[in-house]
Amino acid sequence: MPNLHNPSSLSLSPSLSLSPSPCARDERRVGPRATLDVLANRFLDGYPYLCRTEDISREGMRVRRLSDPDSAARFIGLQFQLPGSEEVITASGEIVSTREESRSVGVRFTHLPSRARKAIDHYLRRACG
């Protein structure tokens, strides 16, 4: 069993099966959003907590909380891998929406290295056609 407070004990390898659905668009988004179902680390107060991603866009992502405590934190750190990539993406983001019934939060990226942004763009092009 992984130690949720020891990031080196967690495997972020996207071993889950991913079947990208058609891109979703709505009036709130500038670009496409694609399904992304992988495990990730969500950092609160410097501690990593396991979460599961639901979708991703160039601007942000939705993650479902699995093990983290309730927190009023507005800014979080994220670490995740895209399917087919060995690179671990590290990003910072602001929580912009919360769905209590599914324990998920919408995160707008506030810091995303250019290499990570290119990887996300590539993933979106591949997932959305």
Topology:
Blueprint: E1 33-35, E2 39-44, E3 47-57, E4 60-65, E5 75-80, E6 89-99, E7 104-111, H1 114-128
Antiparallel strand pairs: 1-3, 2-3, 2-5, 3-4, 4-7, 5-6, 6-7
Structural class: mainly beta
Order of strands, widest sheet: 2-3-4-7-6-5
Characterize the main sheet: 6 strands, antiparallel, barrel
CATH architecture descriptor name: Beta Barrel
Compute the CA-based radius of gyration: 14 Å
Low-confidence stretches: 1-11, 13-21
Q: CATH H-level name... which superfamily?
A: predicted glycosyltransferase like domains
* Portion in helices: 10-25%
Mean pLDDT: 83
Quickly name the level 1 CATH class.
Mainly Beta
Give me the count of strands: 7
Specify the number of helices.
1
Indicate the proportion of strand residues. 35-45%
Number of domains: 1
Multimeric status of the protein: single chain
Q: Whole-Å distance between the termini?
A: 37 Å
Key features of this structure:
mainly beta; Thrombin, subunit H; six-stranded antiparallel barrel; 1 helix; 40% strand; disordered N terminus
Concise summary:
This protein has 129 residues and is mainly beta.
